Amino acid sequence: MSEIVIELGTWQYNAGIAGLCNILEKNGIEINIHEDKLIFNSEEELKKALENFEEKYFNYLIEKYEKTLSWYKIVSYKEELQDIKNNFEILDEKKFQELDKYIKEILKYYIKSASYKAAYELIDGNIDPLQLEKELKPVSIKKNEKISDKKEDILKMIDKALVLIEYCEKGKEYLAGKNVIYTLIKNAWNGVCFLNPQTKEKNFYKDFKNYFVDTALSYLDEDKSKYKYECFVCDNKIKNFDNDFSFLNETGFDTARKPSHAWNFLNNTGMCPLCRLIYSCIPAGFSYVYGNGIFINSNQSLTELLRVNRLVYEKIYNHNTKNEGNSSLTYRALAEALKDEKEENLKYELADIQMVRYENEKYYFNILSKNIIKIIKNSKNDLDFLTKAWYREINTDFRIYEEVMKRLLNNENLFTLIYKLLFYKVSREKDCHFTANHVMNILNINYRILEGVGLMENKEKFNREAKAAGFYLREKYINKKAEHKIPGLCYRILNGIKTNNRKMVMDTIFNMYLYVESPVSNVIAKMLDDDKSLEQFGYGFTAGFLSGKQNENSKADGGEE
Hints:
Layout: E1 4-7, H1 11-26, E2 32-34, E3 37-40, H2 43-49, H3 53-64, H4 70-75, H5 78-86, H6 93-111, H7 114-120, H8 129-135, H9 151-170, H10 172-188, H11 204-221, E4 229-230, E5 237-238, H12 273-279, H13 282-285, E6 287-289, E7 292-297, H14 302-318, H15 328-339, E8 353-359, E9 362-368, H16 370-378, H17 380-385, E10 390-393, E11 396-399, H18 400-409, H19 415-427, E12 432-433, H20 436-452, H21 461-479, H22 486-498, H23 502-515, H24 531-546, H25 554-557
Antiparallel strand pairs: 1-3, 2-3, 4-5, 6-7, 7-8, 8-9, 10-11, 10-12
């Protein structure tokens, strides 16, 4: 009755351990965590935890991501249909359009999708959903007709729709299960088990049990004394290298077809069945939204790893996603988690934190240094202000919040982004859905970056003063009816800052003050301190000079038209 110890390792393995812990705890199984280890007191204890694990696995993912699944889109409209059926008078033009859209774009679309078709034979029922879908005809209303004229046809359509919804409710474990396979699980691993196109087992619950769970349980019972190889992950004895890493996305390779990837063309990177089962739990360790994922490899301890990733998940799904870019949610969840007041007691100073992002079917890695974590936490208000601001470039929309976070996570300053935004504001304002105040928020964040690396100290007030100087100079130009000169002057200043041409910048600014017969602001001298001051305060001055308002109101806060 030997003890089973599962220790933290690589980021991918850690994500699998986190997923395993999440699944077990969600199903009421108490787990024993000691620092960086998950401990089972005996093989029997582990076997008990893995009973019906295939059901625990899918139930966890379905419940966790229920409201993001197409299955939910189908069944969540049931109450609305029943309300219309019971009180037809509530069906006005707007509700009818919503009903029509639901029937065409959701119900009929998903019912005849390939993944759903494959699940129907697993569901007990006395109806043929595909035949019923064919009979479900959307009702059209001609110009000279009223909704009430089509009452009978609409009610018949609703009755058929309700039958299909009830069928989907009954088949939740299989239909929603198919959803999580292709929207979540496939992000982490592929090509084996139910994701193997050649699999013979149609029931994916049984397939998972046979491929992952049963082999792990059998391995526990095997006599390993004569095994001469070792698991590449946990160092336990294994019989051969048949279980390789090839099923893990963007990680493993096909050892049979690509032997050149291994030293001397001989593969020695096999894993034991138990580790393979743990890797299969990666989807339960990551937090996914709209196909993008995030995992914080805070591996100081397993407790900390679980806590911070659960917090990130909460932040993602507690957010109002309206008007936000899909991929922005993962960045925002991270920022929210790091700046949360509850986080003050976290011992982030112990080590830097690795962040893993899954975007566009690839993994991206960042190291969250202590300084960057501090900047993100201290930039709460500035970051929040940027959430709805965006710009268009080459027919593509870019969320400014996301662009700022990308640079922060890559330990980059924000000068190139600031220049681009101001340049676009001058040259192509129609593509700019942000204000000068948004630029100032970015400059505030950038100041904290510079301050954190010792390039700028005790000068934060000059950000505001530089913008104010630009704004009041703009007012003088407007009073002199010379507003048409502003874009050209901004363009000249931006070029001077970009090329580090102090003479061009200062000559331009001094001539601007001479033109309106005004004394030069004291803050202008601060631009001469060093190169970073020229950029930081020069861009702030330009933002103020370009802005039409000193304090732009909430209508423009979001940058939406």
